[in-house]
Amino acid sequence: MSWMLRSLCLTTVSLALLSCGRSESGASGELVVKIGASAPLTGPQANLGKDNENGTRMAIDDLNGQNITLGGRKVRFELVSEDDAADPKTGTIVAQKFADQKVNGVIGHLNSGTSIPASRIYSEAGIPQISPSATNPKYTHQGFKTAFRVMTNDSVQGSEVGRFVAQKLGVRSVAVIDDATQYGQGLASQFEDAAKAAGVTIATHEHTDDKATDFQAILTNIKARNPDLIYYAGMSAQGGPMMKQLKALGIASRFMTGDGGCSTEFLHLSGAEGEGAYCSLPGLPLGKMPKGADFKTRFNAKYGDIQSYSPYCYDAVMVMVEAMRKADSADPAKYLPFLAKTDYEGVTSHIAFDANGDIQGGVITVYQDQGGKWVPQETLGGSH
Amino acid sequence: MKLGRRGWLLGAALLLALPLLTDLGLGRSWVRLLDFALLYTMLALGLNIVVGYAGLLDLGYVAFYAVGAYLYAILASPQFALHWPLWALLPVGALVAASVGALLGAPTLGLRGDYLAIVTMGFGEIIRIFMRNLTPLTGGPAGIDGIDALAVGSFSFADTHRLLGWSLPGLYSYYFLFLALTALIVLMSRRLEDSRIGRAWAAIREDEVAARSMGLNTRNLKLLAFSMGATFGGISGVLFAGFQGFVSPESFTMGESVMILCMVVLGGMGHIYGVILGALLLAILPEAFRPLAQLQQSALGQVWLDPANLRMLLFAIALVAVMVLRPEGLWPSPVRRRELHTPRGGEPGPGDDGDSDDEGADGELPAAAGGATP
Amino acid sequence: MDIFLQQLVNGLVQGSIYALVALGYTMVYGIIELVNFAHGEVVMVGALVSLSVIQRLADRGLSGWGVIAAGILVSIPACMALGFAIERVAYRPLRRAPRLAPLISAIGVSIALQQLAALIWGRNFLHYPEVVARTPFHLGGAVITEVQLVILATAALLMAGLWFLVQRTRLGRAMRATAQNPAVAGLMGVDVDRIIATTFLIGSALAAVAGTLVGTYYNVGNHTMGFLLGMKAFTAAVLGGIGNLQGAMLGGLLLGVIENLGAGYLGNLTGGVIGSNYSDVLSFLMLVAVLVLRPSGLLGERSAEKV
User: Fold this and answer.
1) Beta carbons within 8 Å of C156's beta carbon, 6+ residues apart
2) Of A2, A12, A41, the CB nearest to B21
3) Which of A21, B24, C88, C254 is 20 to 30 A distant from B5 in Cα terms?
C-alpha cells in the first residue's frame, strides 16, 4: 500500500510538472486564434482523418497569409490537431482538451459517433463546432446552439438521388447495399424510401461491413435478382473493390454510390472496371465553384489527391473565420451569432445554416466515372 | 504491506483531492480521463475474476459492458420515453449482465485455453452485431443519444454543484461516484478472493482435473466466475452510458476487450492492486503520449514522424517492453512472484497450495488439445 | 443452382485465403502453443512489400505472374527477417513466462507493426496494380478467375508441402519433438531455439505468400488489412483444430463456405427477417456448435502429436 501512496504522490507531482509545459497564447501584440481539429488519425479511417486535417491546415495556412486583424490586433491562426481514433470516448477526452485549451472553435469530428457525445462538451464550454462530415441527423437536433455542419445530412442526399435514379436513369429495380455504419445505413434507407416512392422496386437490401474486402456472396445474391442498378452506401475503400468484384462475376447492372465513394480513391481502386459508375456528392462540382478549381489544384500540389472531406473542412474553417471577422472578435460568445447567420460562398457550395445548424438548401451533384475521371452529370435539389 | 492509520487517511485524502489537483495541474480533460480510468478499473477488476481467479481466457468481455450500457440507454432515454432511476438500473444492469454471462458461459464449459478465447471473442462480436442490427431497440449503428445523466433523486452528477462555497463540476461528482463503486468492487474482489469460492477458483485455475476429483463442482464454479465478472462489466456499462450520454456500437469493439485483457495481464493477473495499476496505466498512457508533436517541434525543429502514429507506436513498444521485462506483470501478487522465481524443480514448501508443477505455476490452463498432456 | 455453385466457389476461394493465413498460425501454435497475434500484421507487411515491388515493375510496363513471383521473392525475405526479429524481441524472452504474457506482447507487436506500416506506406488504401488478366472461366454456370484458381492451388500445395516437411524430413522430426517436449528434445540433441526460430521463419514466409495473393486478389493494400484477416484465420485454425495443418486447411475452407452461404441464403431462408448482416453470427454459432461437440476442433484429436 505504501508503494501505491508513493506512486500517487509521484503522479500528482509529475502531472503538475507536466502542466508547466502548456503553451500560453497571446505573446506580444499578436492574437493567437486556436482552431481545434479532430478526426481519426490512426486505425482504418486514418486516411480520411488525415485528409480532413490537410483540408483544415490548408485553410489555416491561407488565412495566415491574409494578414487578418481582429479587434485591431494582427491574428495568427494555429491548428491544434488531435486524434480521436473514431472512438466516442476518446472523442470526449479530446473535446475536453480543446475546452481546456480554450480553442476558439472546432472543426470536427469526422464521425457522427464522436461528434455527438463531443458536441455536449463544446456546448457546455460555448465553443462553436462545425463538423465537416457527420451525417447523423441527431447531431444537430440535440438543441445545442454550438453544433453546425457543412455537409448535407443523409436525408437530403438519399431522397434526391432516389428520385434521380428513377426519373433520369430510368431504373426500375435496384439492389441496395449498406456498410452497417451509421452513415451507410442512414443513406441507404433514405435512398430506398425515395426510390420506392418513385416507383422503383427494391430487389434486395444487402449488408456488408466497413472493414470488409470480399463482397462476392452478397453480389452473387444480387446477380440472381438481376436489378437495373446496385446502390452502395459506404466508403470507397469498399466501393472500389466491390466494383471490381461485380464485374468479375459478370454482373451487368449499373452501379452507384454516395459521397463516401465519390472520391479519387474509388477511381484508383476500381480501375478500368469503374467505368460508368455513378456517384453523388453534396455541393456543386468543384470546377463550377469560383474558388473550387483553385482549391483542387493547390490541394493536389500540396497534399496529393483529395480523399473525401477535405474541401468541406476547408469551407468549415473559412465559414468560422468569416464569422469572426464580422464580429471583429475570436471570442466564441461574440462570433457565434454571426456564425448562425452565415452567408458564404465556399469551395463546395453556398453555405447558410438553418435554425438547427444544418446547411440550408444543400444541392447534390451526380457524377459518372468516364475514363477514370468523375464527370459531373447533373445537379439536384436546391435553387440551382 | 502494513499501512498505519495515518497512511490510510493520507491516501484517502489524496484520492479525494485528486480531481482538484489534476484539474489545477493538468486541466479538466485529465479529470475526464480519470473518470474513464476508473471505469476501466472496474472493467479490469471484473475481467480479473474470470481470467485472474478462475483462469478462463475471455476475449469478449466487452459484451457485458455493452449489455449494461445499452440497458441503461434503453431504459433511461427518450428512445422509448422511459426514464428509470439509477438506483433501479444499477442492480438490474448487474443482474442482466450476470445472466448473459452465465448464458454465454454455459456452452463453453468444456473448452480450454485458446479454444475458450476464440469462442468468447465470437460471443463479443455476436453481441455487437445484434446491437448494430436490432435497430428498433438499439438505434442500430446510429446508437442512442440524449441518455439521462446519472442521478440520485434530484442530485444529477452531470451538473455543477456548490459545496461550502466551492463549485463542484460534474466531472468531479462522477469521479466520486466511480471511486465509491470502484472501492466497492475492490472490496468484493478481496472478499471473493479469500472466500471458499475464491479458493475453489484457484484450484480450477491451477488444475481443473484435480479440482474436480476433490469434489468441486467445476461447472457451477466456472459459471459463477463468468457471472461475477459480467456483473462488474454490466455495472461499468450502466455508468458509462449515463456518463457519456450516448451509446453506439463503436464503443464496444473487440479492440476494447483486448485492451481490458492487456490491463489485467500487464498489471499482474489475479492481484487486485496490480490490476488497478494496469488499468490506470493503460487508460492514461495513450493520452500522456499526446504532446509528441510539440516535443518533436521543440527538440528537432520540425515534426519528423507523424505524431498520431508515433503515439500508438510508443504505446505498443511500452506494452512489449513491460511484458518482456516483467512477464508476471508490473505488480504481481507475492505468491505468484514466489512461484515464478522459484528455481525449476525446487521443493515446494509443506502446506503449499500444491501447485508446484510447471504447467500449473503459470496460472493458465494448459491449452494443449486434450488437456493434460503426458 | 448456378447461384449455389457460385456461392460455393466464392466460399472456397475465400476459405483458401483464410487457410493460407491459418497455416501460419497453426505452425507456430503447434510448436510453442503461442497464439501469434501479430501474424495478421506480418501478412499485411508481406502484402505491402510486394505491392511496392509489383508497382515498380508494373510502372516499367511488365505484367504477368512473373511480376507477382518477383513480389513474393522480395517479400519472403522481408517477412522472414521481421518474423525472426519478432520472435527474438517479443517471444523468446517470454518462453518460460506465464502463458498470457506472450499473448500481450504479441498484441503490442501487432499494434506496433500497424503504426510502422502507416508511417512507411501512408494511411491511404493503396491500389494493388493489376498485372494478371481477370479472364473469367465458366464452370457450369459459376464464374472463376485465374487468380482464384491460383489461390486455391497455392493453398493446397503449401499445405501438402508443409505436411511433407513436418512428417518426412529431419527438420520436421525435430519440430515434432520440440512440440511434444522441448526439454527432452533438447536433451536428445535438438537445438530447440533454432527449431523455434525456423518455425517462425517458415510461418513468416507463408505470410508473405498469403499477403501477396490477398493483395493481388482484392487489389487493395492498407496498413489495417491484416487484423480482421488474422482474426478470421485464427478462427479457422481453431475450427479445424489449432496446431494441425490439415485442420487449418479444412477450417479455412469451411469458414469461407459458411460465411458465403450464410450471406447468400440467410435472407431467403428467414423470409428476409435476418439477412447478410447476420452472416458473422452464423459463422460464430457454427464454431461454437463444432467446439461444443468436439472441444479441440474438427481434426484436433488426431493431432496427439502436434504440428
Assistant:
1) C16, C249
2) A12
3) B24
CA B356-B360-B365 angle, to 5 degrees, is 170
Q: Is residue C306 part of a domain?
A: no
Q: What is residue B52's predicted lDDT score, i.e. its pLDDT?
A: 93
Per-residue confidence (pLDDT) for residue B10, from 0 to 100? 92
pLDDT of residue B345 exceeding 50, the answer is no
CA proximity to C44, closest of C233, C179, C259: C233
**What ipTM does the predicted assembly reach?**
0.91
- C-alpha cell read off for B227: 457471472
Q: Which residues of C touch B266 (CB under 8 A)?
A: 104
Question: What are the E-state strand segments in chain A?
Answer: 31-39, 69-70, 73-83, 105-108, 129-131, 147-149, 173-178, 201-207, 229-233, 254-257, 278-282, 344-345, 350-351, 364-369, 374-380
**What domains can be seen in chain A, in order of their start residue?**
26-152+290-351 (3.40.50.2300), 154-282+364-380 (3.40.50.2300)
Contact C91, C105 (CB under 8 A): yes
- What gap in Å lies between CA A346 and CA A158, rounded to an integer? 23
Q: What is the pLDDT of residues C109-136, one digit of tens each?
A: 999 999 999 999 999 999 999 899 878 8
Percent of chain C with pLDDT over 90: 71
Helix (H) or strand (E) segment spanning residue B246:
strand B246-247
What local confidence, expressed as pLDDT, does residue A382 receive? 65
- Go through chain B and tell me how many residues it has: 374
CA B45 and chain centroid, separation:
5
Q: Does C22 touch chain A (CB under 8 A)?
A: no
- pLDDT score, position B239: 97
Q: How many distinct structural domains can be found in chain C? A: 1
* C302 lies in some domain: no
Structural domain including C253 reads 2-293
* Disruptive mutation site among A4, A51, A136, A208 for chain B (greatest number of B CBs within 10 Å): A4
Mean pLDDT of B82-106: 94
CA gap C126, A269 in Å, rounded: 7
**B30 interface with A at CB cutoff 8 Å:** yes
CB contact under 8 A, C220 and A271: no
The fraction of chain C above a pLDDT of 70, given in percent, is 97
- Span B192-245, pLDDT tens digits: 999 999 999 999 998 888 999 989 999 999 999 999 999 999 999 999 999 999
Q: Indicate the average pLDDT of chain C.
A: 91
Which residue matches cell numbers 497564447?
A: A25
Q: What is the pLDDT of residue B297?
A: 74
More confident residue, A22 or A9: A9
d(CA B361, CA B350): 16
Interface-testing mutation among B57, B118, B262, with chain C (most C C-beta atoms within 10 A): B118
Residue A8 pLDDT greater than 80, yes or no:
no
Question: Is A41 an interface residue toward B (CB < 8 Å)?
Answer: yes
How many residue contacts between A and C have a Cβ separation below 8 Å? 101
Task: Give the CA angle between residues A87, A92, A97 to the nearest 5°.
Answer: 125
Selection from B270, B246, B229 nearest residue B50 by Cα: B229
Cα C74 from Cα B11, distance rounded (Å): 58
**Res. B21: pLDDT tops 60:** yes
Residue B310's closest chain A neighbor by CA? A42
Q: In the beta sheet, which residues pair with residue A36? A: A80, A106
Rounded-to-integer distance, Cα B116 and Cα C158, Å? 29
Query: Distance between CA B290 and CA A38 in Å, rounded?
Result: 13
Distances (CA, A) of B12 to B16, B180, B364, C87: 6, 11, 35, 44
Q: Which residues pair with A80 in a beta bridge?
A: A36
Question: Which chains are within 8 Å of A by 3+ CB pairs?
Answer: B, C
Pick B369 or B328 by higher pLDDT. B328
What CATH number is given to the structural domain containing C137? 1.10.3470
